[in-house]
What does this fold into?
Amino acid sequence: MKHFLILILFTSILMSCKKDTEIINNPTPPIINNLICNPSFEISGHGSLNCWKIVKDFTTFPDTFSTIVPTNGGQFSLRLDGIKHVGWAPFAETYITNLSGLKVISLSAYVMSLYGGQSIDLTLEHIRGGLVINSKSDYHWAFSGWRKFTVLDTLSVNNDDSLRVKIIQNNGQNSGAYID
It folds into this structure.
């Protein structure tokens, strides 16, 4: 009888124990939907620079948009062209604001090199207090056809921070690219 009582006591203790639940915090936040205003350089079926600052030689290269686009792209692509010895490289840039917290940013663009001579950069810059505190780029030299450029970063963003997206067509003789 004594063994029977010990068995019942042991069984009831064992049955009353709860398994501790382990809480796993996933440090990687979800990727946010598109944050770029006018990500495809077009609005209502027309090429548009809305939300973008473009620096290029509009006199030598007046065509800003092209209907040459990648498969599954928009209706228009941006055209950036450069020439040697002008002291600057043509670029397009836009800013993302009103973010805070830990954010996974996935930035991508399809680019087609026109002449293949100079590098093309897709850059994501984290700006705080007017200073770039983090910068990450994807760049390629001399390629043909459309190529996907991708920058992936996890950033801890304050309310007053901004993110700058910049596409640079580095200068050289006959340098140019389509961007979508």
In short: The two ends are 83 Å apart (CA to CA). Residues 8 and 14 are 10 Å apart (CA to CA). Residues 1-25 have pLDDT under 50 and may be disordered. The helical segments are 2-16.
